[in-house]
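Q: Got a minute? One more chain.
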Amino acid sequence: AYRQQHVPGAIHLDYTPLVRRVPPALGLLPDAAHLSAVFSALGLHEHLNIVAYDDEGSTKACRLIWTLHVLGHTRASLLNGGLAAWLASGYPADHTAHTPIRREYVASIDPGSVADKAYIRQHLNDPRVQVAVSDWSDWLDVHLDDSGPDDHLVPYHWAPHLLFTWLEGEA
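A: Always. Here it is, folded:
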């Protein structure tokens, strides 16, 4: 889609480097060294504002934004409605591929932004933690605890990390 048309000046970032696939978990966060290489190639620096979009319902763009937030880079936002909304508003499209200027970027992962299976188990009955599932069609019979009738079913993308966790009240 990028080769056909994109927001003027936009650069292409392949989605694949934003996830680490270790079956059965196909959406793991890559390590800091890997993300350092990805974002160095992108030319990321602390003052750069990233506006992300994709042509698949914004899920990949949201993954990019979440990854940046995990790294402490909060200057990232979503193009509301993506390219379709941009074009429908009559804004121009570009067909020229743009290459970012490489800059050295050192990624540092904030462990408080990633929830793993142990965290979920520890907080299953914690009223201050709400786990939200973004897509009900992803439900699989994956058990956190196979100890008996109180087994908890979780979607595959919760283990070993969780993209959406809201803490209610004080931590």
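A: The radius of gyration is 18 Å.
Q: Perfect, thanks.
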